[in-house]
Write a structure and sequence with these properties.
Length: 348
């Protein structure tokens, strides 16, 4: 598989006091790059300075935008952002996490935690490129439940996904994302239609996306809207060469899919294109013989440069490209302790 053609690099200049080099998602709109780290409960906006630099960073804390949001109950693990004309959408991973081995303590691996904030699917008003929350312009999020939220409650009955969301034994949590458990990474929107990419589970090498339609039955609360057949979501199955979905990005009516390993390991990072994505029927299957094509591979390091975010990027006189941001960036990408370097690859 051919490696993407690197057009140039872009420096992301963050506020030194709020810099986090591990980036999990990206969206570009109206000259601004929106991004987030899966380690913080905040969205960061960076303004275009020139063709090679974005900066003047502004952080928007979720605790100031979402009603009843409590930082103390854990991280959101933000894994997807998308912008519309009047809103920014975001999604957390919706998955559990297993404790890491530290200093050889393998007993840590028995510990599986659930952060309630991870079950967040939200829409935040966007006014003059500012995220706002007022009495008349409220942020809204999917209904919370004891399971996490309305989506998880419904998916626990799904014939494909239920085994990955069940609690099989007393005191045993659902399988963590990095163990091929349920893990949302990637979100795109078309009005109130939502596509969510799943890093896991990957079923016998086949990845999945979920398509939802949402409405707002009361201010501040989103709810799943039934399809014509009465179902609350649609499933889409994708042959991504055994990889899971890491990020989604719209290119017109097509969908760009950043794919990578489901497990916590170094491996292939590959960009795919799925044509006419909003025309997919329920339980669609896409492979290289149908709507799916491979665009290129993205280089990675050993434990570094894990591509996590993708956004369309084009400048006057330059070919159309995609901006890639990384989790665990190579130390060479970090400049002056507050800037990080992203890559732009040619898309055509």
């Amino acid at each position: 598989m051919s490696v993407g053609a690197l057009l140039h690099q872009v420096i992301l200049r963050f506020d030194r006091d709020r810099f986090h080099q591990d980036l999990s998602t990206a969206a570009f709109a109206n000259g601004y790059l929106w991004t987030a780290s899966d380690e913080e409960n905040a969205i960061v906006r960076l303004a275009t300075i020139d063709d090679w630099t974005v900066g003047n960073s502004v952080s928007f804390e979720l605790s100031t935008l979402l009603a009843d949001f409590d930082d103390a109950v854990g991280e959101v693990d933000i894994e997807g952002l998308d912008c519309t004309a009047d809103a920014l959408w975001l999604v957390g991973s919706h998955g559990t996490k297993r404790k890491k081995v530290k200093k050889g303590k393998v007993e840590n691996l028995k510990v599986i935690n659930t952060d309630p904030n991870r079950y967040l699917l939200a829409r935040i008003p966007l006014v003059d490129n500012q995220l706002v929350a007022t009495a008349t312009q409220k942020a809204a999020y999917l209904q919370k439940t004891p399971d996490g939220n309305e989506l998880i409650t419904v998916l626990k009955q799904d014939e494909y996904l239920a085994p990955f969301l069940a609690e099989p034994l007393p005191q045993v949590r659902p399988l963590p994302g990095k163990d091929n458990g349920f893990d949302i990474e990637g979100l795109v929107t078309q009005q109130n239609r939502i596509l969510l990419g799943l890093r896991g589970p990957v079923l016998r090498g086949i990845a999945m996306m979920l398509e939802l339609e949402l409405d707002e039955p009361e201010p501040g609360r989103l709810a799943l809207k039934p399809n014509r057949d009465g179902s609350l979501y649609r499933r889409h199955f994708l042959d991504l060469d055994g990889l899971g979905i890491r990020e989604l990005c719209l290119d017109g009516e097509d969908l760009l899919i950043l794919a990578g390993p489901t497990m916590d390991l170094d491996g292939t990072l590959r960009l795919f294109r799925l044509s006419d994505v909003w025309m997919l029927p329920n339980d669609s299957f896409s492979d290289q013989a149908t709507r799916l094509t491979t665009v290129f591979d993205i280089p990675h390091g050993r434990g570094t440069d894990k591509a996590e975010g993708v956004a369309l990027w084009q400048r006057s006189g330059q070919p159309k490209g995609v901006l890639i941001v990384y989790d665990s960036p190579n130390p060479d990408r970090v400049i002056d302790g507050s800037h990080v370097v992203a890559d732009v690859f040619a898309l055509e």
